[in-house]
């Protein structure tokens, strides 16, 4: 009798805390997220289990906790004092899922690896650490269409980061005022500019009006520069809105569109990706909901892989010494994960932003070891004491110094824009 062909699997790694021993908790998760439920059913035959049930691939115990991180009424009902005698079990587990359970379906993939398991009563803490898909499976998803190489080609920028900024104030500017600011920024030879996530289609500056006002300005500067500054105009909205707005940007000669990825949603972005003729700039606003608690949510390594499968070309990773809660180590780890190999798919270009100026360039390059990124600065460009052109120049000069192995202080001696940035922002850098 011939041997059976091994089933194709993908895997997810979790950090878990449970009122039950890890072996029991892991089996509960595997069953809940595949063929099982809270009781035995006649339909879950041995043949069905072999074909469809997820399996526990590995368990790595960690020191237990005397108290639960998250409340579980289920656990409390099972133990009068709500606390197992040996404390709450902690560890990392790997669950292997049959590819045939899901197929090339982003919503079902998410439901499988990040669905009801977050609500299981036996679980008092759970975090999705990473996912791994065989290349044959990952290739069934759209993936980035433009990635790093296509973005560089569209922007005409090679061998260094794309230097960019965000339209500020975030909201309130009319279409004409936005075009005036874009004119000044493009006159400074900026590589990239984007709408704020708060701006999409407000009554005072409708999407169509902004596009109509801004694109002639960009085209005029493109003729002068010999390359077109990339403007990631925010097209976030319904699926129909995003497709229509994408087509309008493409027809107007635009070279990028932006979406608030978490709120437009995976399926909507995947639909846009299959339609797009332009790079999709993914803003991750709302990410803190998914990651800020260490025993709940997602690690960025898993998050970016899901968006890479879906088809984002760029994804925000925060920045060193940023204005938010995130430490530098996780910022660099996030950027590294965007550029790391995964399933044969092209990388996502990491976008560094939040409290950025020329002073972070050297450390960013030293730690990331790559220039395949966007470095966006708001106040660090627009607030430069010598003006916007000097702000753009200061970031470019800082990256020239970083990639040449010259200290910023030394390079600033012969580069006034960088010198001005160090004098203005140095104390906060």
What's the layout of helices and strands?
Layout: E1 9-18, H1 22-32, H2 46-52, E2 55-65, H3 73-78, E3 88-98, H4 106-114, E4 123-132, H5 135-138, H6 147-155, E5 162-166, H7 175-187, E6 192-194, H8 207-225, E7 230-234, H9 239-251, E8 257-260, H10 261-264, H11 266-275, E9 280-283, H12 287-291, E10 296-298, H13 300-310, E11 314-318, H14 328-339, E12 349-352, H15 361-368, E13 374-376, H16 379-382, H17 388-404, H18 408-412, H19 416-425
- Beta-strand share of residues: 15-25%
- Going across the major beta sheet, what is the strand order? 5-6-7-8-9-11-12-13
The best one-word shape is globular
Overall average residue pLDDT = 94
Spatial separation of the terminal alpha carbons: 69 Å
User: Which consecutive residue ranges, at least 5 long each, have pLDDT under 50?
Assistant: none
- Would you report the number of β strands? 13
- Radius of gyration, taken over Cα atoms and rounded to an integer in Å: 24 Å
Query: How does the helix and strand content classify structurally?
Result: alpha/beta
Could you characterize the architecture of this molecule?
There is one protein chain. It is built from 19 helices and 13 strands. It is an alpha/beta fold and 429 residues long. α9 links the parallel β7 and β8 (257-260). The mean pLDDT is 94.
List keywords for this structure.
429 residues; alpha/beta; 8-stranded parallel β-barrel; 19 helices
């Amino acid at each position: 009798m011939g041997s059976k062909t091994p089933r194709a699997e993908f895997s997810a790694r979790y950090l878990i805390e449970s009122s039950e021993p890890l072996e029991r908790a892991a089996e509960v998760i595997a069953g809940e997220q595949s063929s099982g439920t809270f009781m035995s059913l006649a339909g879950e035959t041995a043949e069905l289990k072999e074909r469809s049930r997820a399996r526990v691939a590995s368990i790595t115990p960690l020191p237990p906790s005397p108290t639960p991180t998250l409340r579980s009424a289920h656990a409390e009902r099972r133990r009068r004092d709500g606390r197992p005698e040996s404390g709450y079990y902690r560890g990392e587990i790997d669950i292997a899922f049959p590819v045939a359970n899901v197929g090339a379906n982003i919503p079902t993939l998410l439901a499988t690896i990040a669905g009801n398991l977050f609500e299981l009563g036996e679980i008092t803490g759970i975090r999705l650490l990473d996912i791994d898909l065989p290349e044959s499976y990952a290739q069934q998803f759209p993936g980035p269409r433009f990635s790093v190489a296509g973005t560089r080609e569209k922007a005409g920028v090679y061998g260094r980061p794309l230097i960019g900024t965000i339209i500020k104030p975030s909201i309130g500017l009319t279409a004409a005022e936005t075009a005036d600011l874009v004119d000044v920024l493009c006159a400074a030879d900026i590589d990239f500019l984007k709408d704020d996530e708060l701006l999409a289609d407000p009554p005072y500056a409708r999407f169509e009006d902004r596009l109509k006002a801004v694109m002639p300005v960009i085209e005029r500067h493109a003729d002068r520069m010999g390359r077109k500054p990339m403007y990631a105009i925010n097209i976030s909205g319904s699926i129909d809105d995003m497709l229509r707005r994408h087509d309008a940007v493409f027809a107007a000669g635009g070279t990028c569109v932006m979406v608030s990825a978490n709120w437009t949603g995976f399926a909507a972005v995947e639909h846009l990706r299959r339609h797009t003729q332009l790079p999709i700039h993914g803003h991750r606003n709302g990410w803190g909901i998914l990651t800020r608690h260490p025993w709940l949510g997602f690690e960025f390594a898993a998050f970016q892989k899901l968006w890479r499968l879906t088809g984002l070309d760029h994804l925000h990773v925060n920045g060193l010494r940023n204005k938010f809660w995130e430490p530098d180590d996780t910022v660099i780890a996030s950027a590294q994960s965007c550029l790391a190999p995964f399933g044969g798919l092209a990388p996502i270009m990491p976008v560094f932003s939040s409290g950025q100026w020329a002073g972070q360039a050297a450390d960013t390059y030293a730690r990331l070891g790559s220039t395949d990124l966007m470095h966006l600065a708001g106040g660090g460009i627009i607030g430069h004491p010598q003006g916007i052109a000097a702000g753009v120049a200061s970031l470019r000069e800082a990256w020239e110094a970083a990639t040449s192995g010259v200290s910023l202080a030394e390079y600033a001696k012969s580069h006034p824009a960088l010198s001005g940035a160090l004098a203005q922002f140095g104390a906060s850098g």
